[in-house]
Amino acid sequence: xxxxxxxxxxxxxxxxxxxxxxxxxxxxxxxxxxxxxxxxxxxxxxxxxxxxxxxxxxxxxxxxxxxxxxxxxxxxxxxxxxxxxxxxxxxxxxxxxxxxxxxxxxxxxxxxxxxxxxxxxxxxxxxxxxxxxxxxxxxxxxxxxxxxxxxxxxxxxxxxxxxxxxxxxxxxxxxxxxxxxxxxxxxxxxxxxxxxxxxxxxxxxxxxxxxxxxxxxxxxxxxxxxxxxxxxxxxxxxxxxxxxxxxxxxxxxxxxxxxxxxxxxxxxxxxxxxxxxxxxxxxxxxxxxxxx
Length: 292
Fold this sequence. Notes:
By secondary structure, this protein is mainly alpha-helical. The protein has one domain (2-264). Helix content is 73%, strand content 0%. It contains ten helices and no strands. Helix 1 runs antiparallel to helix 5 (113-146), helix 5 (113-146) packs antiparallel against helix 7 and helix 7 packs parallel to helix 9 (234-254). The protein starts with a helix and ends with a helix.
């Protein structure tokens, strides 16, 4: 039992650490490769937080609709489809429209492929970092709960539930404790692709690119919600998300363009314009040059 707990402790900590380290490592790579500062990363991060400040209350406001009788009376298949479409579209609309606002009024200098990737790394990266910190916080809580009487932590009516949760946490297969890191590994490419797609609305002057980003984001989130509701295992869900990750990487490289050169243009050395001597024709000059 002690060995199992030690292994799970290592994997839980590693899971949270990787969720934090992956976006930071990606950002370090992008800033060095394209010789950029971290400014666009932080702009992308604040944009994500801003989108969630609007997105989460909106979902909370609309969610009572799905508890009403007319919705519950629908076949389960239709319930799952409607809920998946709603959650997918709300995520796509709030995040991608926020990204558009970012490019339009804040990150006006982000008009190249590399800059778009850096903004996307901030948008998806801060989400991974926040979730990674929550994973580590949850591990600390469960570690403390494991060594104390549960009855001292919760009310009597919740003791049984809390005990079951603690037992499930410390009896999980080690590979399942790494699901969070795997999910972030697949989610970050989606944010990169959406960031580059929205950027095309400015570089190509076509607003429908924002619609493509909304559609891609909504499809990825909606499918994930749907297959989780119909009983897919966690690994199967991650497999489907992995397909979207591969698709996102393909989109990123299809839209790749050379970065604008930051080197100053060479200064041309001006030379005086050659002007031949003007000879004024006269009888005297003609007489001098007649036999030359």
